[in-house]
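Quick one:
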Amino acid sequence: MTGLTGAEQDLLAPVERAPILAHTLDWAAINSGTGNLDGLAAMASRLADAFAALPGEVRLVDPAPVEKVDSQGQTREVVHGRHLVLSVRPKAERRVILTGHMDTVYAVDHPFQTCDWLDANTLHGPGTADMKGGLAVMLAGLKAYERAAYERAGPTLGYDVLINSDEETGSLSSAPLIAQLAQGKLAALTYEPALLSGQMARARPGSGNYAVVVHGRSAHAGRNPEEGRNAILAASDLALRLAAMRRPGLSVNPAKIEGGAPNNTVPDLAVLHFNMRPATLELAAEAQAYIKAAVAEVSAAHEVHMHIHGHVSRPPKAISEKTEALYGLVSKAAADLGQPMSWKDTGGVCDGNNIAACGVPVLDTMGALGGSIHSPDEYLLADSLDARARLTALVLHRLDRHGVLPA
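Output:
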């Protein structure tokens, strides 16, 4: 490691892999799929105990209400787990926010539930990279930062930690909390996994999930089909029109059509689910207008009624001058630690989108290195745990002591 001061070397010296790995294994053994409320409660309790080692107040916050359109076209409330918040030095003039999520994509009945080692450095297991390992990295980095003995004083930077329970399904029940905690922050670090090379995410598109409920008219498929209004056909027509919206900077994915009827009945109900990812707010507005127009045209052509539910819940993440400055600080810290990194725009979205929309510069791939996330092949590289914890500690130290971000 080069470019480190004596104080910085002392700051990083206590960071060891073993306790970070122990937390990762412990937390990965708990199924915390977004819909597993018991597992999320157990995970929140375990995290609260671990993060209580930091000098702040840990609290669990109730989720905001969320509704979802079901297969019958009815809106119903979706229950979520509570979110963990830790506040340290809340009255500090300069504060940052660190975020992560406790939920995974693996349901309680998913076959992928345990960890095993593929080799001495590759830990295969559910949520190891996304992001139980990232949470362990965050905690270790914060502990190292808090242990530091500076020349005249200890740490002075204040921060909030937010670990939500619903990131994998869009953070709808935690979005108000994210916006509240992000306000006025100097910078944000989010612990999504980096790529194997250490490459970090740069710009991200926005994302919105939609459901269009189609009400047609049933009829006998043989005796009087002309009197029916086929909701499945109308939903399919709309799906094709939405798919035709795709162009550079705008991705649209018709994902599912629910509904239907017996083969001898014209179906009178369908629900089309789709995802839209615009690269800019302007594209989001254009796409929203197109969706409204397409719904009107298809409704008229098929003589059905359509109702749109949903919106762009994660705004596009643009790169501001402050974001560039944060990237520069992290790049320099990584280089000084012997962890050279590069940056790449990505099509994925995360809580970094929500934070950036609040005007806060955010780096959202501060977590462990790994791959094959959201699949039964998910794995983590163990040697990235202590490396990334050191990066967290050093970045916080330099934000605290030097404040390099522009006003």
